[in-house]
């Protein structure tokens, strides 16, 4: 433990230099000051103790599966990766795990809110319950007559939560509206036409349907849900113009996302989390951790075995994190859907620093080939780890229910072998998958790493 504390301290010192050079830390400030300022640690809590606190909480959550006697061993397994800055925990884990009882250690959610049926006060209370637990939220406004009115109401509620000190972590949000909604043009222009709203806690996106894209390509009028028509090229131009002016809206293709829905019997996917990295069912939350890629470059080459070990450890941590989140959800619906599909996301940070260490240009063929190989390896090993967990803990409950599209878990990747993972590798994993199932409906997600990557001194 003392050796690990010393290694953590050495790495922390190097990161402090990076943070000072970029202006994130002022002269005289320490690494711990960054954590305290971002409310991830208490004043006087050393960074190693923050890591130990969070990883012990994660290890303890798996006690029902591996017993009390193994908690300390698993804790050390987690702490080894985190204290060496090879695995970076999401900021909600560092903020809340072992420190804020009753709070989620998840970053994002899709609240099971029925916007058309609930009163404004009921909506504000439910959404606020997710925000106060530290989670950003995503919404679909398709069923509403006036989506902009609801967007502005939710945005004002989110701003007030911060002003009133109700939340520690300022939570972002996503609002989605389909392109065939009669008021889609007002939605597209909402930020530009409301300059008096100085603070937006929402990103917005337009869901582009296949019918709209067909009309755009054929240059024919597009029919909205109320029967009126609009020039699709005009709408597309307005999306681009407003995105250039205000940063919003983005565009989504929820039809394409639902084509890849592995468990359609659990429902249709309507929206995404605030930065768009994952779509989830109503009530779901996502739990992330990041592989710090430059930490796996040893003597100028990728430490493949070290990366594999880190992936397996991260999957175990995130599956344990699910247990904590299930117990700390504001609604029964959330707890039920989370436990039913057990979605996790192994992400990455520091990709550009990894390329820099290897002397590869970001836009080079070699850089792209490395990115492909690394991500295919992470994808493969995360699914192998999830299959191992299914053997130990059982697959996610919805796996064996009618409707689960088992062909979407591994087969798409077999069609795209890489230098790191061959088609034969996928075939061998497929045989285990068919026999054992898989613990998590998803294993890789690429979320923005935000404060977590800054903590590690990387992009």
Provide a descriptive summary of the structure in words:
The structure is a single chain. The protein has helices spanning 2-21, 31-37, 47-61, 63-66, 71-83, 91-96, 120-132, 147-163, 184-188, 210-218, 232-246, 254-259, 304-327, 332-341, 351-358, 365-393, 411-414, 423-436, 450-455; strands spanning 87-89, 108-109, 136-140, 173-178, 202-207, 222-223, 229-230, 250-252, 285-286, 288-292, 297-298, 301-302, 345-349. It has 19 helices and 13 strands. 49% of the residues lie in helices and 10% in strands. It is α/β, with parallel strands linked by helices and 459 residues long. The protein is globular and about 70 Å long. The model has no long low-confidence stretch (mean pLDDT 93). A six-stranded mixed β-sheet has the order 8-5-4-3-2-9.
Shape: globular
The proportion of residues forming helix, as a percent range, comes to 40-55%
Mean pLDDT: 93
Rg computed from alpha carbons, rounded to a whole number of angstroms: 23 Å
Distance between the termini: 29 Å
Number of strands: 13
Q: How many strands, which pairing sense, and closed or not: the largest β-sheet?
A: 6 strands, mixed
What is the strand arrangement across the widest sheet? 8-5-4-3-2-9
The secondary-structure class comes to: alpha/beta
Low-confidence stretches: none
Strand content: 5-15%
Helix count from the secondary structure assignment: 19
Summarize this structure briefly:
With 459 residues, this protein is of the alpha/beta class.
Give the SSE layout:
Elements: H1 2-21, H2 31-37, H3 47-61, H4 63-66, H5 71-83, E1 87-89, H6 91-96, E2 108-109, H7 120-132, E3 136-140, H8 147-163, E4 173-178, H9 184-188, E5 202-207, H10 210-218, E6 222-223, E7 229-230, H11 232-246, E8 250-252, H12 254-259, E9 285-286, E10 288-292, E11 297-298, E12 301-302, H13 304-327, H14 332-341, E13 345-349, H15 351-358, H16 365-393, H17 411-414, H18 423-436, H19 450-455
Parallel strand pairs: 2-3, 3-4, 4-5, 5-8, 10-13
Antiparallel strand pairs: 1-10, 2-9, 6-7, 11-12
Helix pairs in contact: 3-5, 3-13, 7-8, 13-14, 13-16, 16-18
């Amino acid at each position: 433990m003392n050796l690990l504390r010393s290694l953590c301290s050495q790495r922390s010192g190097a990161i402090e230099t990076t943070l000072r050079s970029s202006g994130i830390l002022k002269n005289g400030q320490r690494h711990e000051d960054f954590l305290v300022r971002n409310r991830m640690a208490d004043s006087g809590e050393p960074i190693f103790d923050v890591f130990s606190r969070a990883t012990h909480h994660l290890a303890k959550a798996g006690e029902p599966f591996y017993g009390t006697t193994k908690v300390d061993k698993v804790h050390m397994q987690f702490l080894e990766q985190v204290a060496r800055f090879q695995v970076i925990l999401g900021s909600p884990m560092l903020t809340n795990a072992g420190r804020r009882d009753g709070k989620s250690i998840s970053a994002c959610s899709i609240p099971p809110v029925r916007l058309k049926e609930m009163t404004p006060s009921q909506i504000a209370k439910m959404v606020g319950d997710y925000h106060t637990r530290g989670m950003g939220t995503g919404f679909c406004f398709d069923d509403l007559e006036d989506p902009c009115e609801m967007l502005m109401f939710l945005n004002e509620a989110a701003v007030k939560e911060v002003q009133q000190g109700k939340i520690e972590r300022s939570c972002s949000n996503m609002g989605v509206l389909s392109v065939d909604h009669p008021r889609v043009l007002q939605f597209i222009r909402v930020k530009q036409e409301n300059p008096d709203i100085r603070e937006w806690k929402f990103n917005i996106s337009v869901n582009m349907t296949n019918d709209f894209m067909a009309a755009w390509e054929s240059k024919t009028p597009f029919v909205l849900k109320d029967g009126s028509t609009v020039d699709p090229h005009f709408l597309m131009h307005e999306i681009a113009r407003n995105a250039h002016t205000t940063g919003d809206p983005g565009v989504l293709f929820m039809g394409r996302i639902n084509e890849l829905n592995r468990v359609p019997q659990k429902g249709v996917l309507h929206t995404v989390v605030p930065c768009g990295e994952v779509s989830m069912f109503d009530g779901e939350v996502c739990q992330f951790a990041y592989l710090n890629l430059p930490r796996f470059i040893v003597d100028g080459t990728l430490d493949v075995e070290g990366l594999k070990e880190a992936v397996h450890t991260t999957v175990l941590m995130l599956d344990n994190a699910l247990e904590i989140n299930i117990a700390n959800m504001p609604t029964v619906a959330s707890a039920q859907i989370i436990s039913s599909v057990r979605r996790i996301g192994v992400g990455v940070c520091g990709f550009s620093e990894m390329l820099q260490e290897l002397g590869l240009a970001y836009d080079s063929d070699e850089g792209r080939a490395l990115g492909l190989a690394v991500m295919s390896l992470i994808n493969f090993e995360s699914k192998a780890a999830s299959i191992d967990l299914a053997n130990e803990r059982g697959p996610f409950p919805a796996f064996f229910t009618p409707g689960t599209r088992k062909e979407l878990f591994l087969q798409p990747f077999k069609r795209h072998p890489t230098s790191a993972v061959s088609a034969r590798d996928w075939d061998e994993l497929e045989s285990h998958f068919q026999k054992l199932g898989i613990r998590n409906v998803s294993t890789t997600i690429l979320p923005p790493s935000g404060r977590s990557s800054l903590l590690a001194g990387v992009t």
